Amino acid sequence: MTILLWTGALSSWLFIVIFLIDGWTRPGYRPVRHPVSALALGPRGLLQAANFVVCGLVITASAVAVVSALDSVVLAVTIGVFGLFLVASGVFPMDAMRGYPPGTPDETPAKVSVRHKLHDFAGAVVFGSLPTAAIVAAFVLPEAGWKWYSALTAAGGIAGFIAFGQAWESDHPRAGLMQRATIVVGWVWLGLLLWHAAG
């Protein structure tokens, strides 16, 4: 079970490394504006799609080990939900819009595909379940430091999700940056939590 926790932690951090490097080196992609999900589109789109799916599967598997390692079924379930819907985010990519991939009109289409709607739903669950897991951790973990860190992560994750949602709806030029900050806060916490659980 320990190996599941270690690989879950490493997968959380590797997810960040991959989308940061890919985003900064992708032709026509603007990391400050475009969301991470847009990296699943275009010629190199398979890389980010795989990033979603592999990371999600590994984290879902690691959630099984959380039950015994941290003695909390609720925490394990919330982490498992996060992992499963991360997989769904890769299986159902968003529609092309807002200038990416290159050649796409620089606006949001009036109508989106069912696939895009499924992606949006999966993303909402992802960004909702991780702060929920942090809230649960703040209650079930015995160490004061972890309680405070988890509570702050939950607050940051919720605030970041709301801020990104508003920025996305208004096509704010820094929407992608807001999303990235939210992801880093949550995914780093999850990786550290799984590493801590591995003991």
TrEMBL record:
Instruction: List all membrane-crossing ranges.
Output: 6-25, 46-67, 73-92, 121-142, 148-168, 180-198
The record's InterPro entries line, in alphabetical order, gives: DUF998
The alphabetical list of record keywords is: Membrane, Transmembrane, Transmembrane helix
User: Any idea what this protein is called?
Assistant: DUF998 domain-containing protein
